[in-house]
Specification:
binds fe (ii) ion; two-stranded antiparallel sheet; Hypothetical protein af1432; 3 domains; mainly alpha; Arc Repressor Mutant, subunit A
C-alpha cells in the first residue's frame, strides 16, 4: 500500500502540465501561487479565502485542455496564441483583434496574400462564436476535474470563473464586481503581473496594472498591489521548490490515500487525452492493457499499480507540443520532432513533485518510448535500464497507439498492430515477453465495471455520446447513426440533462470517466 501523499503534490504536477499547455514560463503557476499568497497576506484575507487563492493560482488552467483541437483549427498554434493573450488586456477589443490577426498570420505565413486576407477576415468574424463555447467548456471541465481530486464547492466555483473580470468584460458569463469571487480577482491580477513583468519589466508592468485598475481589476485591489509591488515580487525570478509550495497551503493539509491517488492519476489521464479527439481514452486504454499484462506475467501488486498509474500519466509531457502540430497530416519539422521526442522528459519533470512512490512512476513515464536496442527516446536507454514494468508499459503503449488512428495514418487492425509489435521484438526493440503478455490480454473487457452509473442513458444516447465525445458534431453523429439531425439534437439535449452537463466538453469527460471510450475513436 502506498503511504498517503499530500494532495498539493498532485496540484504541482497539474500546475507544471498546464504551464506547458498554456505557453507559460517554467514554474509560472508556482510563482503565481507564492505571489498571490503574499498578496492575500497583505490584504488580510481569512484562511478560507486564502485556501481559494492557493488553489486558484495552482489550478487556474486545469480545464483548458478541453477542445484544444477546435482552438487549434481556428487559430493555429494555440500555445503561441495563449502566450500572446497573457500579455494583453482581453477587455480591449483592438488588442484582442490584433492578437487574433497575429495568430492567423502565423498559421498562414506561407499562403498567398488573398488566402491570408480571407483567413483573417473569417477568423475575426468567428472569433467570439468559436471562443465562447470553448471557454464555457474549460470552466465546466475545470470544475469537474477539481471535484474528482476532492476540492471543495467553493474552490470549484472559483475555477469555473477563471476568465471572468471585474468590469464584466470577461467570458463566458460576463460576471462583474463582487460576483467575481475574490480569489479569482486576486489571482488574475497576480498572474497578469507575472506575465507582464516577464514581457515588459517591472516598471511597465506596474504602469499597465495601474491603467487597468477599475477595468479588468478592482481598483482597490490594484491599488493595494501597487503599493506593495516591490515586496510582493521579492526573489520571485527563479524556480520555486516543492517545500515552499507545501508550506503555503493553509492548514489542514489535504492528504490523498490510495483511492484518492488513483482518482487523481485518472484525472491527469483524462486531462491529457481530451485535447484531441484521436487521443480520447488513450491513456486509460494503455493502463488497462499494461495492468492486465502485468498480472499475466505475474508482476508484484505494487509494480502493477505503478505501471497503471504511470500509464495514466505517461503522455503528460505531450502538453508541451501544440495540438496544431499533432493534428497536422504532414511530416513534422526537425524542431517539432525534437520537441515531440522530449515529452517523456517533461513527463518525468511534471511528476517530480510527487517524490517517494512517485519516483518509480516518474521513472516509468520517462522510459515509455525507450527501446531495448537504444533506438528509443529521449535518453536512448537500453535493455538493462528497462525493468519488466517499463517493458510492459512500452509494449502496451506501442500496441494501443498502433490501433488508434492519427491524422497522418489510419488505425491498424488488432492483427496488424500485433504483427507490427512482433516485428519490433524480432528487431530486438521491444521485449518478447512483454509484447506477448500485452497481446494475450488485448481485447479483453476492461476490469472496470461500466454497466452501472450510466445515468439511465438509452443505448442510442450512449452511441450519440460516444460520437460527440470523439469530436463529431451533432450533424456528423446523425449521419453516422443514420438518424435525422433534429433527432440527434434531441438525444444530445436529453443525455446532457440526464448526466447534468451543459457543454460538449463536460459530456466528453463524463464518457471518459465511465469507461465508455475504451479505445481511441477514429475521427470521421
Ligand atoms: Fe501514449
Ligand atoms: Fe508518449
Amino acid at each position: 500500500m502506498t503511504k498517503s501523499v499530500r494532495r498539493a503534490d498532485f496540484l504541482m504536477a497539474l500546475a507544471y502540465a498546464t504551464d506547458l499547455a498554456t505557453g507559460h514560463s517554467r514554474d509560472f503557476a508556482l510563482r503565481s501561487c507564492v505571489l498571490a499568497m503574499r498578496f492575500a497576506e497583505v490584504a488580510g484575507l481569512d484562511a478560507e479565502t486564502r485556501r481559494g487563492v492557493y488553489h486558484q493560482a495552482l489550478l487556474r488552467y486545469i480545464g483548458c485542455n478541453a477542445d484544444t483541437h477546435l482552438l487549434a483549427s481556428a487559430f493555429g498554434d494555440e500555445i503561441a496564441l495563449r502566450r500572446d493573450l497573457q500579455r494583453i488586456d482581453i477587455g480591449n477589443k483592438s488588442e484582442l483583434a490584433e492578437t487574433i490577426v497575429r495568430a492567423i498570420t502565423r498559421t498562414f505565413a506561407d499562403a498567398p496574400p488573398a488566402e491570408l486576407a480571407a483567413a483573417v477576415e473569417r477568423g475575426l468574424a468567428e472569433a467570439m462564436q468559436v471562443s465562447v463555447p470553448i471557454l464555457s467548456g474549460h470552466c465546466e471541465v475545470a470544475r469537474r476535474i477539481a471535484e474528482r481530486i476532492g476540492l471543495s464547492d467553493e474552490i470549484r466555483e472559483n475555477l469555473g470563473q477563471l476568465y471572468e473580470r471585474w468590469d464584466g468584460k470577461g467570458l463566458p458569463r460576463g460576471l462583474s464586481g463582487n460576483a467575481v469571487k475574490l480569489p479569482v480577482r486576486l489571482v488574475t491580477l497576480a498572474q497578469d503581473a507575472i506575465a507582464l513583468n516577464e514581457a515588459h519589466g517591472f516598471d511597465i508592468m506596474k504602469a499597465m496594472i495601474g491603467k487597468r485598475a477599475g477595468g479588468g481589476y478592482e481598483a482597490e485591489l490594484a491599488g493595494l498591489f501597487l503599493v506593495h509591488a516591490e515586496r510582493l515580487f521579492a526573489d520571485l525570478d527563479g524556480p520555486v521548490d516543492r517545500e515552499s509550495i507545501l508550506a503555503l497551503e493553509p492548514a489542514p493539509h489535504a492528504m490523498l490515500e490510495e483511492t484518492g491517488c488513483e482518482e487523481a492519476y485518472l484525472a491527469i489521464a483524462d486531462m491529457i487525452d481530451m485535447r484531441m479527439p484521436f487521443t480520447f481514452g488513450h491513456s486509460r486504454a494503455v493502463a488497462a492493457l499494461a495492468e492486465a499484462a502485468g498480472k499475466h506475467i505475474g508482476l508484484p501488486a505494487a509494480d502493477i499499480r505503478d505501471v497503471r498509474w504511470a500509464a495514466y500519466a505517461h503522455d503528460i509531457g505531450e502538453l508541451a507540443v501544440p495540438v496544431s502540430v499533432w493534428m497536422r497530416a504532414g511530416r513534422l519539422t526537425e524542431r517539432e520532432t525534437d520537441a515531440a521526442r522530449l515529452h517523456p522528459y517533461h513527463g518525468e519533470r511534471a511528476l517530480a513533485s510527487l517524490g517517494g512512490d512517485g519516483k518509480a512512476i516518474a521513472a516509468l513515464v520517462q522510459r515509455h518510448h525507450e527501446r531495448l536496442d537504444g533506438s528509443g527516446y529521449f535518453r536512448n536507454a537500453r535493455g538493462p535500464d528497462l525493468s519488466p514494468a517499463a517493458r510492459i508499459l512500452a509494449a502496451a503503449e506501442a500496441f494501443q497507439t498502433a490501433r488508434e488512428a492519427r491524422p497522418y495514418r489510419p488505425a491498424l487492425s488488432d492483427a496488424a498492430a500485433a504483427a507490427k509489435l512482433r516485428g519490433a521484438v524480432r528487431e530486438e526493440k521491444l521485449c518478447g515477453n512483454a509484447v506477448e503478455a500485452v497481446l494475450a490480454c488485448a481485447g479483453q473487457p476492461s476490469r472496470r465495471d461500466t454497466s452501472e452509473r450510466l445515468a439511465g442513458l438509452t443505448p442510442r444516447e450512449i452511441e450519440v455520446l460516444r460520437l460527440i465525445a470523439g469530436g463529431h458534431t451533432a450533424k456528423e453523429a446523425a449521419r453516422r447513426l443514420e438518424i435525422a439531425p433534429k433527432t440527434a439534437d434531441n438525444h444530445i439535449q436529453s443525455l446532457y440533462s440526464k448526466i447534468g452537463v451543459s457543454t460538449r466538453a463536460a459530456a466528453a469527460l463524463y464518457a471518459l470517466e465511465r469507461g465508455l471510450i475504451q479505445q481511441g475513436i477514429s475521427p470521421a
